[in-house]
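Entry 14. Two folds queued back to back today. First construct below, sequence then structure tokens.
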Amino acid sequence: MLKEQIFEKMNGFLTEGLLLLPEQYTIEDEFAEGKECCILYEGIYQAERNLCERLGEDENEDVETILNSMEKITRILAMKMYEYGKYACMVRAIGR
């Protein structure tokens, strides 16, 4: 599905050339070096490392659960926003 491809591209999971959109549309990798999401993610990673160090562990299951759940929540919200945006465009196109 297009919305999944857009999400994957924005999150840096989709390689170049796999997303078929007209040339005037550019979907940026929001996790590219220097982008705000990249910087925020680096902060999250460092906080996780700090927590694990304080706990004397290499990794912590609770921290992993939090991170994985937040990623799933983000995906759910992004997919819903895509659908709402698509619906809003359709309504606008038919003049409601």
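Second construct, same run, same settings:
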Amino acid sequence: MATARLAPGALTVLLLAGCPAERLGVPLPPRGVDAINQEDLQRDMFHLLEAGPGHRRHPEAAEWVARRFEEMHLEPVELWIEPSVCGLRRGREASILTIASFPQNSGARKAALPDAQIITLAKSIDGLGTPTHGILFCSVTGPMATDIATDLFELFPSLHALVGLHELGGETLDFGEPGITKLTTWGVHSGNQQLVPEHDGMEAIDYVRVAEHLRQVHQRFLAPEFTAPIQPPAAR
């Protein structure tokens, strides 16, 4: 009777299949705050900003944001506001935490940095598991951007909070005081620098400080979404 034989190396593959990568010594990509770094910020800035003295937002910046959101395994979501690009990470609950950027037309800090920041935050939750609330990342431009809260109420039955993420990297990170109407909102910034667009190039940005500010934003708003709730002790 013939006996089936495994090809050389197949037994090893079968034995290793299903083993966690960390047990096999395979390096895993950094996650959480460790995934936030200045190199990624600079790389995204290069694609989001058009070359030239005006430091204008690249005509294909929205496509780049959508591509990066897809790489972070986010589900595309369409707002009524145009132009906008949104990506959703579904949570255990239906309520949605939204983190939004509001890029403008020119100047590296205004036209590209807000989106580079939100891409980095999206990367920081990739691979962390399922958050408590759904997390929606949105890049919204144009005169209707301030209506994002109204748009969100139309799309989702329950909203947890809205974090408006403005350009970071200034002297002091400011989370502001939460505004509460129908929705708790936060405006995160590090000072509103009024710079002439021609003098506001990407080389003048302190990416080390921006990355540090983003780690603080992650710890404030995102890390709690992946912290397991404390279970009450079992009755005896």
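Quick look at the second one. Residues 207-222 form the longest helix (16 residues). The CA atoms of residues 164 and 187 lie 5 Å apart.
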